[in-house]
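Hello K.,

You asked for the raw outputs rather than the summary table, so here they are, unedited. I folded two proteins back to back in the same session to keep the settings identical. This is the first:
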Amino acid sequence: FFFFLAQYVLETLCFDRHKDYMFVSPRSVKAHFNTGKFARKLTGSSVVGAKENHTAIKKAATERATELFPDYMTRIIATKRDDVSDAVLQAK
């Protein structure tokens, strides 16, 4: 529910300011950067179990964001690095 509310608010702000925008699903971002479970299945490195899979996805996203933006990602505290890496990859 929150996702759709946030999406609606962002869409309204962009429309009001005459800005172009495009929403991209998190699944597409994970497939593009090869950080999701579906991308790992293609390489044969899938992880069994929901918690282990979630941890592996977060770790892969953090590694990829650190590769792309090393100066920025090293300034983020370790406890928030996985959340920030998802946001940075989705915004790229």
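The second followed immediately with the same parameters:
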Amino acid sequence: HTSRSRPKDLCLDSQLIVAAVGKSQLVTADMVSFGTICVDAGIKKADGKNCGDFASDVQSVATLYTPVPGGVGPVCVAALLRNVQFVWLL
């Protein structure tokens, strides 16, 4: 949440964190409480690799974690294809 001055506190109080910022390593393990569900929808190219908004150490704390690449991307592609089919059939 961009208007929060202390995002770490907001994250620690959350059961679900969805990050779609496009800034690698934005959310670290010390910002995530045990058992949180982390959905990483942000992507950034760093050192020739695709990275997400969550640091890799978040996996050890989160109950569920969507990796980058391969997390929400296939779901986005499937939704896009469904919408294209819907418009085609109109």
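The first helix runs from residue 7 to 12.

Happy to rerun anything if the numbers look odd on your end.

Regards,
P.
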